[in-house]
Every structure is written in C-alpha cells, then in structure tokens.
Amino acid sequence: MSSIDRADPVILGHVLAEHRELFGQMQAVRAAYAAEGPPTRDGVAEIVTTLRSLREHLRSHFAQEEEGGFMEESIARMPRLAAQATAILSQHPVLLVQLDRLIDSTLSGGMTAAAWVAHRERFAGFAAQVQAHERSENAVLQDGYNEDLGLVD
Ligand SMILES: [Fe+2]
Ligand SMILES: [Fe+2]
C-alpha cells in the first residue's frame, strides 16, 4: 500500500469519529427533552444549553467538512459522487438555520402542554434530518472508498 493510500483511512476515521461524537451530542439533547410535560424553568435552561452546545458542535463539524479533505478523496476516486456531495454540503446552512429557530422558540418560554408537544416534535424532525444528512455523507464516503478499503458489509 502506498503512502497516499495510507492517508485515506485517517481522513475516513476522523470523519467517522466526528459523526460518533455528533451522535453523542444528539443523545444529550434527547435526554434534555425527556420530560413528559412542559419543562420547568430549569428544564428550559438545560434544553437551551444542550441545543447551543449542539449548535456549536454542528457549526464546527460542518466547517471542517466544507474546508476540504473530506469528500474530495471520494470524488477523486469516483467522480459521479460530485453532485451528491455538493447537494449534501448545501444542507449545512439550512440545518443551522433550523436549529437557530428551534433555539429561539425554546427561549420564547411560557410553554403550554400543547406547545411543548409541538416543540418536541420539531426537535425530533430536526434530529431526523441531521441523522439522514450524516447517513448520506457516510454513504458517499463508503462509495468512494470501498473499492480500496472494502467497507461495505
Ligand atoms: Fe455534513
Ligand atoms: Fe458530517
């Protein structure tokens, strides 16, 4: 295996480790959302704290992905992945705006039981989108690399 090939699993390993960390952050937010009824003032504060932490993590994760060395190798190996990679990266600002709106709506406080249910559903919808986003990134990486690394089950 050449030295260029040896660098590839490092990039791949870094991204997959980042995605695992992101999953942990999402779990922390889910735990903060565990309350059945509308949260207390402390509960709201905890939700806002975990959402802001998630926001910072996502921002830096997205920036790293956009700065390169991430999907380029997959695209270089398999040019047909370029359009898919561009579409995936274009989701970053949309996801951040959605999270900002979610944080703003949490801060507006004074939640009724119905508003709380709706708010939880909004977070669940956002979480599902982030999960789908990360899954599609993993798929591009796997498509680009599996020829050499045999990552497909
Ligand atoms: Fe991403
Ligand atoms: Fe990602």
Written description of the protein model:
The protein is built from six helices and no strands. With 153 residues, it is mainly α. The protein has one domain: Four Helix Bundle (Hemerythrin (Met), subunit A), CATH 1.20.120. Helix 1 packs antiparallel against helix 6. It is elongated, with a radius of gyration of 18 Å. The N terminus is likely disordered. It binds fe (ii) ion (2 copies).
How do you describe this structure in short?
The chain has six helices and no strands.
Map the helices and strands.
Blueprint: H1 3-32, H2 41-67, H3 72-77, H4 82-89, H5 91-107, H6 113-149
The chain binds fe (ii) ion (2 copies).
The tally of strands reads 0
Q: Which sheet architecture does the biggest sheet show?
A: none
Integer count of domains: 1
Bound molecules: fe (ii) ion
Helix count, DSSP H or I runs of 4 or more residues: 6
Strand content: under 5%
Q: If you consult CATH, what is the topology?
A: Four Helix Bundle (Hemerythrin (Met), subunit A)
What is the CATH architecture descriptor? Up-down Bundle
> What spatial form do the alpha-carbon principal axes imply?
elongated
Radius of gyration from the CA trace? Answer: 18 Å
**Stretches with pLDDT under 50, minimum 5 residues:** 1-7
- Estimate the mean pLDDT confidence: 84
Order of helices and strands: HHHHHH
Amino- and carboxy-terminal Cα gap: 22 Å
* Relative helix content: over 70%
